[in-house]
Write a structure and sequence with these properties.
single chain; mainly alpha; two-stranded antiparallel sheet; 4 helices; rod-shaped
């Protein structure tokens, strides 16, 4: 019944609980990152395949039937990219930032405007893994797939967002669903 020992015991129990929570957060962060890595790897593979068949389709040697098949495959790859852009981990969309309850893209490849109010909601998810340590676990979809928002005006103040390639060189590898549709149409017209 020593009050000092009781105080120490309570403090140690509290620290153990906190350490357990940090460990659980770290496990969740690792799983989220693995899911994100897998999705980004898939995006890379699909874009590489689109590049390969686009070059094939543009060489001017293929028959109409072959070009039609390439156009169909590009459409299927585009649909697959849309599915990847809406990938989930434990029911939460990994590319939607804090709005992980909503899909990042619509079925036509456009950004889900409900998931992003003037570009402000695309914020990174973080897990607290230590007393003063947070771990970012995602890339937001606007950095990977683009976003229709590059600037907005709120109460007369101009806001800029990171999706302007002139201001953010990391954006040179963004997936643009519109360009994929243009490629598909271009190859179809050659038939």
């Amino acid at each position: 019944d020593d009050p000092v020992k009781v105080g120490r015991t309570l403090r140690l129990q509290s620290e153990i609980t906190l350490s357990t929570q940090y460990s659980d957060n770290l496990d969740s962060a690792k799983s989220w990152l693995e899911t994100t890595e897998s999705s980004l790897s898939e995006v890379n593979k699909v874009m590489q395949r689109i590049r390969e068949i686009t070059v094939q389709g543009a060489n001017g040697v293929l028959k109409e039937d072959d070009k039609s098949k390439i156009s169909q495959e590009i459409g299927q790859l585009r649909d697959h990219l849309i599915n990847v852009s809406n990938q989930t981990y434990t029911g939460r969309h990994i590319f939607s930032g804090y709005r992980s309850d909503l899909a990042f893209t619509n079925s036509d490849g456009t950004c889900n405007e409900n998931a992003n109010t003037l570009g402000v909601s695309y914020q990174s998810m973080e897990y607290k893994v230590g007393v003063s340590q947070n771990l970012q676990v995602n890339y937001t979809g606007d950095r990977i797939f683009g976003s229709p928002y590059s600037e907005a005006t709120i109460t007369g103040k101009r806001l800029e967002f990171a999706n302007d390639p002139a201001k953010n060189s990391e954006l040179t590898t963004q997936v643009d669903f519109g360009i994929i549709i243009d490629i598909q149409k271009s190859i179809s017209k050659q038939t």
